[in-house]
Structures are given as structure tokens and as C-alpha cells.
């Protein structure tokens, strides 16, 4: 079972930081891959550096034909969830998505600017994290946390050079030196 996140759009300078945060949130909360529709070397570098130091096998891809990507994903045992404030409330629809998700892959779409109507139409589920406008990072985090029921917060990443030992009262970090 695989979870991928498709970031639709990216407005250069303005979105560098938030697009990086979308990718890091995806990785930290259980997704296997982030797909961008706009190239940005700075974002790619930042994400790759995190993976190099903090481990795991998180993939980064840039595509041009996002509609084809979605259609192809659906044809290959995948369901597609588009996060939008106009969608069905996550509280009401999550059980159904989880049932559908069993044995399948899931593609989660988040936008940057106005999302084209085809994204709404191609999605199997248009899901809102409440019906107020907020942020793609917040929406993605809540959705993934609900999907994995908090379990991915304990996830250990393979080949990590840096690991944190969780502590209430001190900062404990293990750093593996390069040989
Ligand atoms: C800052 S919003 C911009 C949305 C844009 N104004 C539009 O009309 O599509 C960027 C993204 O955050 C996500 N988002 C924001 N609020 C949300 C909510 N309440 N529920 C689900 N996703 C949300 C959506 O994926 C959206 O495309």
C-alpha cells in the first residue's frame, strides 16, 4: 500500500517555503512520494537533504501531465482524494475512505492557487478539513494523521544519520558520523 501526494501548482518565490513544508509534512506523516507539477530546484534540494540526513525512501518527482498521472494512478489500483474546503467533511467520509483504501494505493491532491475543475472531477473523494479556508500543510497533516490514526508519528526511518530520542525534559539527538 502506497500513499502519494500531488501538489498542484507552485508560484515560484512565493510558494518555496510552503511547497517544501507540504513535502516534509507528507514524508513525516506517512506518504511515500511527493509529486510536483512545477519544477523548483530549491524545493527539491531541501527535500533531498532532509531525506539524506533523516532517512527513509521518500521519493520526489516533477511531472508535466498531471491529469494523465491521476488517471493512470486510478487505473493501477489507486483511489484519489482531493483536499478542498468545498469537499465533504473529513469527519463524515473518513470511514468510507479507509474501507476503500484497504489493499489500494492513495493519491492525495493539495492545491497552491486556484485548483482546476478537472481535479475535482477526477478525484474519487473531494474532502474538506472543515469548511473554512486554511492551509495545504494543515489540511494534509490532518488528513494523513486521520488516515494512519497517529501510527506514523512513531515511524522509524531507515538509514537515518540523525535520530531524535523523544524526551519531555531534554534534547537528545543521535548523529551517525559518515565513515
Ligand atoms: C491556500 S488554499 C488555496 C485554494 C484556492 N483559493 C482555491 O480556491 O482552490 C491551498 C490548498 O489548501 C488546501 N486547503 C485549504 N483549506 C482547506 C480546507 N478547509 N480543507 C481541505 N483543504 C484545504 C486545499 O488543498 C487548497 O487547494
TrEMBL record:
Gene3D superfamilies to which the protein is assigned, alphabetical? 3.40.1280.10
Q: Please state the span of the N-terminal signal peptide per the UniProt entry.
A: none
What domain of life?
Answer: Archaea
Which spans are transmembrane here?
Answer: none
Q: Where in the cell is it found?
A: Cytoplasm
* Main localization category: cytoplasm
Instruction: Cite the InterPro entries for this sequence.
Output: Alpha/beta_knot_MTases, tRNA_m1G_MTases_N, tRNA_mtfrase_aTrm56
Enzyme superclass (EC): transferase
Q: So what does this thing catalyse?
A: cytidine(56) in tRNA + S-adenosyl-L-methionine = 2'-O-methylcytidine(56) in tRNA + S-adenosyl-L-homocysteine + H(+)
Which molecular function GO terms apply here? tRNA (cytidine(56)-2'-O)-methyltransferase activity
Q: Provide the assembly information.
A: Homodimer.
**GO biological process entries:** tRNA nucleoside ribose methylation
- Residues annotated to bind S-adenosyl-L-methionine: 83, 111-115, 129-136
Q: Which keywords accompany this UniProt record?
A: Cytoplasm, Methyltransferase, S-adenosyl-L-methionine, Transferase, tRNA processing
The EC number(s) given in the record are 2.1.1.206
Q: Which family does it belong to?
A: Belongs to the aTrm56 family.
One Gene Ontology term, aspect cellular component: cytoplasm
Q: What does this protein do?
A: Specifically catalyzes the AdoMet-dependent 2'-O-ribose methylation of cytidine at position 56 in tRNAs.
Q: Which HAMAP family match?
A: tRNA_methyltr_aTrm56 (MF_00077)
What protein does this entry describe? tRNA (cytidine(56)-2'-O)-methyltransferase
Could you tell me which NCBIfam families the record lists for this protein? PRK03958.1
Amino acid at each position: 500500500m502506497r500513499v502519494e501526494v500531488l501538489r498542484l501548482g507552485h508560484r515560484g518565490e512565493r510558494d518555496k517555503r510552503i511547497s517544501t513544508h507540504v513535502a516534509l509534512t507528507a514524508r513525516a506523516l506517512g506518504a511515500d512520494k511527493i509529486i510536483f507539477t512545477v519544477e523548483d530546484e530549491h524545493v527539491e534540494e531541501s527535500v533531498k537533504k532532509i531525506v539524506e540526513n533523516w532517512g527513509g525512501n521518500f521519493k520526489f518527482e516533477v511531472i508535466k501531465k498531471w491529469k494523465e498521472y491521476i488517471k493512470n494512478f486510478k487505473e493501477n489500483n489507486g483511489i484519489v482524494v482531493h483536499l478542498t474546503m468545498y469537499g465533504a467533511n473529513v469527519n463524515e467520509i473518513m470511514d468510507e475512505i479507509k474501507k476503500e483504501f484497504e489493499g489500494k494505493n492513495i493519491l492525495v491532491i493539495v492545491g497552491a492557487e486556484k485548483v482546476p475543475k478537472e481535479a475535482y472531477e477526477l478525484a474519487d473523494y473531494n474532502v474538506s478539513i472543515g469548511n473554512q479556508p486554511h492551509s495545504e500543510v494543515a489540511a494534509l497533516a490532518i488528513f494523513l494523521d486521520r488516515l494512519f490514526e497517529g501510527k506514523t508519528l512513531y515511524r522509524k526511518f531507515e538509514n537515518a544519520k540523525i535520530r531524535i530520542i523523544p524526551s519531555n525534559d531534554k534534547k537528545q539527538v543521535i548523529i551517525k558520523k559518515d565513515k
